[in-house]
Amino acid sequence: MTLQFWKPGTVGPGSNLDRATEIEGNVVASAPLSSQIGRQAQREGLPIFKHRNELLYCIERYGVLIVVGQTGCGKTTQIPQYLYESGWASSGSVIACTQPRRVAATSVATRVAAEVGCTLGDEVGYTIRFEDVSSKERTRIRYMTDGMLFRETMIDPLLSKYSVIMIDEAHERSIYTDLLLGILKKIRRKRPSLRLIVSSATLDAVSFQNYFNSNAASPDESVIVSLEGRTFPVELAYLSEPTPDYVAKAVEVVWGINNHGGPGDILVFLTGREEIERCLEMLADLLPRAPRGSPVLVPLPLHAGLSTEAQLRVFETAEPRHRKVIISTNIAEASVTINGIKYVVDSGFVKMRTFNPTTLLSTLTATPVSIASATQRAGRAGRTSSGICYRLYTQSSLKTLAPTTPPEITRTDLTTPILQLKVLGIDDLMKFDWVTGPPAESVLRALESLLSTGMIGQDGRLTPVGEKVAEFPIEVGIARMLFTSKDYKCGEEILTIAAMTAVQDVFVIGDGAQGALAELERRKFTAEEGDHLTLLNAYNAFTRYGKSSSWCKSHALSFRAMSRAVSIRAQLKKYMARFNLPMESCQGDAKRLRKCLVSGYVRNCARWMAEGTYRSVRGNMLLHVHPTSVMFTRKPRSGWVIFHEMEETKKTHIRIITEIEPDWLLEYGHKYLDRRTGQEMSTT
DNA sequence: GAGCACTGC
To answer: Ranges for the Helicase C-terminal domain (predicted)?
Structure first.
């Protein structure tokens, strides 16, 4: 790891990547930056010996260190060790390093434990949901998910056991990263001895610095440090003309590489399963026409919906004279790293979910990637040697791309996060020091929803039940449902339903005949009342038959999803015990169960219109039943349903649906405040 | 009669 002062425009080595990133460089270069550290150290008469010491000097001198470095520069593994060796973890304090993903936290911890020469969980450990491999007494370097550290602030608001907190991959701007940064800035005002390291991509470094320096009392709170890593140059190629069909174009490019390019595997970025399958079909059609002497092309799909074993196939080394071509979603951009990739083919699109606070509708649409994303994708070709990235768009369209992807906090339902901030005593949300402020409408709607469900009072303060609900590691509505299960005496079943709705892709659907077979299997669990009870049946069958993976396979269930549901259920059960919520069974009384469901889904009710379409009670939107629902083929006798979620893709779909009686809605007495008139609106 | 990018507590 080499420490360098930050220079605008030096994102990565290699001629072409440099040229391409000049656009990125210019964005950053508009901010005045120089080698501040060097000057500061000189002024204070401090000698700079080594890179490592420079870094340690910076953490001593500045409260917040913004570290810019490419993947592979060792920042995640080395910086915590430097701090540890130089005494930052003495007298019982801990160095934390957060990751946005669980796998990253575990794999990095494993590696660092080996480097330090200790058993994982001793001096070096990790903490993720359901897995705490760390010791309260012995662990000095602790890798964890950002969500876990956020949760810890609810128990220890000053995070007093930590001396240094490193927020890694901060440029990804996960919602927990953003919430944490806001809280950590606040904590540092009360506890200036706490040091912060924010690891970021070049593009975002200045905005992070501005964020931390915006405090008038300490205008030079932070400093940017750049680390040089070992990556290889990636040559960029663009289309001269835009393409109307990037899937077909990707096939063409892959075919061209295979027949004329040197050795090395290919990674193609498309947006979703449907495109991936179309691409695989087109490649399969071409395979018999391969010219003699060219490598045998081995196309492999990669997306989150695949089983674990299908996902693992992309890591297998291709046989001699074979060439892997991995057709992937965005999962390969940051979550999954495959070695040996020499060529990247980038469609330039990604599916992004955006929440509309006015309609409460999430939209999932293919949108152009940001420059940051495009750079990250290209970098996937240069991890082990130099590579080439074929971008399926024109070079001139680069300037129409956004520099970075909008942070998750601007695109998501804030009901649960805002409830959690309230637990931390952050009541005035408009005044909270956000890294990026969420849309005002999102905040208002979240508050409105918290008010209407009794989580906060008219004064905006938490109610006693709100305080408890906030602690549950699950959405507000579902947590609330767990509380009302006491009244309906159905804690046992509601808990299972809560866990099952929290995992996705429970039923494995293949294509063609396999899919039809899976459909038949799924019908075995089907409950008359709808999907929630169907999920309950599936879970109960899973436990009855010994929670086995082979049983799942023969019943078209995802073993991964089911096991996760078991963990979530066990965790939620502990919270239920803590709040004295009884684990009673409804003894097959589905009516009680459904009434309880209504309490959690007051925002999500709809009325039957015609042929698989509904109108939402709120907003009168046209809704289509998702084909995976057991309600897809059936009309609710009462004409009314509640649903777990709605999402707009080509149509607006509702998923996980249960039939209810309309008077249950009234019985529950939920009312919404009309924001314009201040009048209470009935739900009917 | 037709479909869901990716994470996290």
So the answer is: 252-425
Is any atom of strand B within 7 angstroms of residue A128's beta carbon?
A: yes
Residue A380: strand, helix, or coil: coil
Whole-angstrom distance, CA of residue A615 vs CA of residue A626: 14
- Contact positions of strand B to protein Cβ (< 7 A): 1-9
Q: Which pLDDT belongs to residue A38?
A: 46
Residues A252 and A173 in one domain: no
Residues 531-570 on chain A lying near strand B, CB distance under 7 A: none
CATH number at residue A103: 3.40.50.300
Both A185 and A161 in one domain: the answer is yes
Phi/psi at A647 (nearest 5 deg)? -150, 135
CA of A102 to C1' of B6 (A): 13
pLDDT digits (tens, 9 = 90+) for A341-391: 999 999 999 999 999 999 999 999 999 999 999 999 999 998 888 999 999
In window 289-308 of A, residues with CB < 7 A from nucleic chain B are: 303-305
Q: Which of residues 147-186 of A touch strand B (CB under 7 A)?
A: 147-148, 151, 174, 176
Last residue within a domain, chosen from A344, A375, A408? A408
Domain that holds residue A637: 601-684
Same domain for A220 and A266: no
* Contact, A655 CB vs strand B, < 7 Å: yes
* Measured CA distances, A127 to A124, A142, A148, A197, A627 (Å): 11, 7, 7, 19, 38
A148-184: per-residue pLDDT in tens?
A: 999 999 999 999 999 999 999 999 999 999 999 999 9
Residues A277 and A223 placed together within one structural domain of the fold: no
